[in-house]
Amino acid sequence: MMAKSLRPSCSRMIFVIFLGMAYAPQSEATVRAVPIAADHLDVPGQQTPRRVHRLAEGWRFRLGPEDRGALPELDDSGWWEVRVPHDWAIEQDHDPSGDSNTKFNWRGEGWYRYHFTPERSDEGRRFWLDFDGVMAFPKVYINGQLAGEWDYGYNSFRVDATPYLKFDEDNVIAVQVDTRKHASRWYPGAGIYRKVVLTIADPVHVAHWGTVVTTPRVSEAEASVNIATTIGNELTEPVHVTVRTTILTKDGTRRVVATKVTDTHVPRLAAAHVVQNLTIVRPQLWDIDAPHLYAAETQVEVNGQVRDRYYTVFGVRAFEFTKDNGFLLNGRRVQLKGANIHHDLGPLGAAFHRRAAERQLEIMRDMGVNAIRFSHNPPAPELLDLADAMGLLVFADCFDKWDQTADRLPQVDLNGYAERQIRHFLKRDRNHPSIVIWSIGNEIWDIEVNLFGGSAEQVGTIASYVRANDPTRPVTMATHLTQAVNTGMHRYLDVQSWNYGRKYLEGRATYPDMPVVMSESASAVSTRGEYRLPLPRYKDDFLASPVVSSYDLNSVSWGDIADTEFANRDADPYVAGEFVWTGIDYIGEPSPFEKVARSSYFGAVDLVGLPKDRFYLYRSHWNQAADTTHLLPHWNWPDRLGQSVPVMAYTNGDAAELFLNGRSLGRQIKFAPPIKLPPNLAKGRLSSASSEEMNHGNLAQQAVDANSSSRWCARDGSAQSWWQVDLGEPKAVRTVHIDFEQDSSNYQYLLKGSMDGKNWVTLATKRHFERDDLASTHAVTAEARYLRVEFLALKDGSWASIREFEAYDQPVDRSYYGVTRAYRLRWDDVPYEPGELRLVTYKGAKKLGETVVRTAAPPTRLVLTADRKLIAADGDDLSFVTVEAQDGAGTVDPDGMQMVQFELTGPGDIVGVGNGDPNSTDRMVARSVRLFHGKAVIILRSKSGDPGRVALTAAAPGLATASIEVSAE
Prior knowledge:
By secondary structure, the chain is mainly beta. The chain is 9% helix and 38% strand. It has 5 domains: 10-201, Jelly Rolls; 204-314, Immunoglobulin-like, CATH 2.60.40; 319-626, Glycosidases (TIM Barrel, Alpha-Beta Barrel); 687-813, Jelly Rolls, CATH 2.60.120.260; 861-968, Immunoglobulins (Immunoglobulin-like), CATH 2.60.40.10. It contains 8 helices and 53 strands. It has an 8-stranded parallel β-barrel, surrounded by 4 helices. Strands 35, 36, 37, 38, 39, 40 and 41 form a 7-stranded antiparallel beta sheet that branches. It starts with 16 loop residues before the first strand and ends with a strand.
């Protein structure tokens, strides 16, 4: 294999500014100009002694062990040639016997090798290899010597290559990757899945991640900017340096707004820290709707000669989490409408592609999202660059658990490990204005219940590592067990972060002065294009087959549908907002069908970026700047002629009228949220029980504390358990609602009433293990002071346990789905006949929009649509092409499952295919794809330095073919 030269070609230097990042000057013989981290930003028309080369093409890869993999003399010409970022696991076949969560064999060992020739003229300079992410446990060898290793696959690390290089000779970088010890519930990928950068700099330079920009005072009139810079000196003699800092606008004008010059002394083989205070007059503030950015140019001079030039992108903004008014940005309240997103990119796997990530964020923006939680790990640096440029707030996770999901092996000291990982994470990312909170963990059970060595003090220790690296942002930790409020762990945090339900009520009661945010909400589930009848009777009423109806009435047992979360936010305005689980489907965690499916059902958008109906439900509530008029389901129901088919509409309007073949089916109006209930007679009243689970704090009184996150539980699994409440005086009782810990089908019981607590009358009976929506709500007619639940029988594994007991003096609809009337419009009994459904939406008296759903005829053709028909010929840029099966009128076949074959000509590659079906077993890297409900997506990638027209043709039996061209320039 021909070695690559690192000699710069002055006639072919390329600079491109894009989204606040830049492309460093690079030799054509090395690699094409490509996006790099913001702190390496170079300026068009200026020479810089710092050179940055992205090592993308020319890597060789072998899957499996290789005893001689690090040796430079090894002949690797027979290895696969790959482009980095690279994920070896996504290219493999589906394997039902593989990883139980993902059905991919991502565990294994692999080797990467890269050849290059450093120039003798660069001898005496420093060479560093920067890895944004390698999954997992990478060992980096240079010319056969171990130069560095790392132990967290999601975190970035640097290797000093200088001592191992041979100038004017072939050098070999070898990277051993081993995922066998990594643990994950989701798909982690495998390999060098983020970019690799080679940086060459003077011995006197700005240190790695060497600037810290803060804005301690911000107003419309002026902003004070504090810039702390670390200058490294690798020479064996001290130097006197001049640090010249210039702040420039990033709006295209490159206007200078502030400058500062400071002289300092840097000892030999050491570093010096320079602090400069500057002022920007009338600053342009970074905000979600106007994300203005600045660049700080740091120039290092020795004896008048420029030794280094380093750029830091930052924003000027002020924010605060408050206890009563949620989140404030630049002095005004901003409701966090957030989404959790895992790191895979669907058919591309874990291999990071900037355009794929940008497309995901664009889709989330359209849904109304203004905040992202990159769950549960440091993201690719480009994701934060995109968040900065797009005005997205970021909830920054460092870890999920503190175990092997973060690559901490059992024998590794937690404190030392956490300090090192947090230091890397924060030093890399703390200048991003999008980040507003740091999180140190997610649902760490032993900490939350204070068992098995977990302790509140441990939370304090790890939180201190965050504050040592960034005292300007709050620290949090996502919790999911209400017992956490009793451990004292929240004393060491700045913001409470809760997952699911209204568990934050317990936190609010215990820590009333502490801000609250929902780090995970909903966990609703659905399959794009699937509509099953009858409608579910309760939220986790799933079908036997591995699909979830897209009527958006299902969630997993611990979660809730979107409407419930909307109502909770409306009821509790002190909560800063929520991060829905999840914005987009991801590979792994396929609840509720873990045994058969390979990707999740949680997303409002499917795995390939096609919106589900739920996308429009969120959009109608979150994105009030856009008009939403969405109608579901499809209108192909040949087996239900004359039978009712429920129809639903999602709109940001407040009313709509539905027409079937021109006939009005009536106008529906949204109820005003939140839907109010009469007073609960049992709330806070004295309660007692046959026994209590004292060691977990599950006391009788927990069942009437108006907090569904807490509960009463019997001491053991005895069926002869009871719980009762004293209403204080005789009351008229007309409705009793019992929210059990588990499905109501697990319990048989009697509901009794009494005037004196001694003589009891049976008010309602449940003597079966069946379940329906009304199983825990009873319409009664009674006068009683005492109400009691006597358990008769329990399913195996169940204990007598009640989350909330409610009693009302009037008939009350406590069905789970009553809340939907406030956030969507429903026609539950539309008699099916083929033809056309038309929806007209209104806001007040004004018509808002109109949409039509038609009965599809048999499909006759394929149609291709590209999200972008012009892409860069850089080997990175992508075009996402949607293929649809349509009838002659352009209606998509809702039942289409045809296999589509593709032919490609021109300078491009098909790098991924998919259809959004969580149960698909087809390859994700292929030249064919099966339609799912009439749709699928093909991902095209350009070739580096090879412009031209890329032509894609799609064919399927019985359908007219389709073609599309994408230009790469």
